[in-house]
Amino acid sequence: MLAAKLRDDWASSERQPDGSYHLDADPDTFTHILRFLRDGIYPLAYDIERGHDFLLYTRVRCLAEFLLVENLVLWLREKRYLKAVRVETSARVTEKEDVIFGVGLGDVEDVGTKIKYFPSWRVVKR
After folding, report:
1. Is 53 helix (H, G, I), strand (E, B) or coil?
2. At what angle do helices 70-77 and 54-66 cross, to 10 degrees?
3. What is the pLDDT of residues 21-38, one digit of tens each?
């Protein structure tokens, strides 16, 4: 892990006079590494409109490989984040009188039948 990096020659070359270490890494990417090391929280970069942020996963994996954070590397390499999010869709057919609230995205008329669509999304944390 990171401790292994701090014990080898890399650590002695990066140690600052005050005893701290300089790590030249993107702070946004390193935040995910720290969160994993501190709390065991794997990065989950998912947006309902755009999906997974594969670029971020790649950047975190590369930095985790460099820092020897093996469990995180394995989780990202095996793309386990794909199993952490499940997207479901459903539809319900109702009679016109059953629709009380909501704004339809559009009406479709076909032989006197009116269909309104009321999409909704929810995110459920597992």
Report:
1. coil
2. 150
3. 777 889 999 999 999 999
Residues 71, 11: Cα–Cα separation, whole Å: 22
The residues that bridge with 109 in the sheet, in sequence order, are 114
CA dist., res. 73 & res. 92, Å (int)? 42
Distance (Å) of CA 119 to CA 31, 88, 91, 114: 35, 12, 9, 16
pTM listed for this prediction? 0.63
Looking at the chain, how many residues does it have?
A: 126
Nearest Cα to Cα of residue 84 among 38, 52, 62: 52
What digits encode the pLDDT tens for the residues 64-73?
A: 999 999 999 9
Name residue, tokens 């401790």. 3
